[in-house]
Design goal:
109 residues, 9% helix, binds iron/sulfur cluster
Length: 109
């Protein structure tokens, strides 16, 4: 056995509080496509919220309302997991149609 110490003997790591963390605009390097949702099809199962790797699903209380342009990277996971086909990936330059939601907030808060 090597001389590695068990985890109980390791020094504690650093801690970053949410208010200390930088919030880089990951949406600025999106893949060239973005998700749009047809809210009339949405059953609010929240699978998109559960699987989104970058917290880019917007909720109002517990209701899905759209996407956060500041963080969304266009990875397509939300569209892949949506069980009712409510999410469509479209070219970045596509205008947001009426009734579909896309938040763009420079603050990232
Ligand atoms: S494409 Fe969907 S899953 Fe991927 S970062 Fe954007 S909102 Fe999240
Ligand atoms: S996965 Fe689809 S049905 Fe479920 S909350 Fe998201 S958009 Fe709505």
């Amino acid at each position: 056995m090597s001389g590695l110490r068990p985890w109980q003997e390791l020094s504690p790591g650093g801690t970053i509080r949410p208010t200390d963390a930088e919030k880089p605009k990951t949406g600025s390097w999106r893949t060239g496509i973005k998700p749009l949702a047809d809210l009339s099809k949405c059953t609010n199962c929240l699978l998109c919220w559960l699987y989104c790797p970058d917290s880019a699903i917007l909720l109002e209380d517990t209701t899905f309302v759209g996407f956060d342009d500041y963080f969304c990277k266009g990875c397509e996971v939300c569209a892949a997991v949506c069980p009712v086909g409510a999410i469509e990936m479209v070219p970045e330059e596509t205008e947001t149609p009426a009734g579909w939601v896309m938040r763009s907030d420079e603050s990232g808060s």
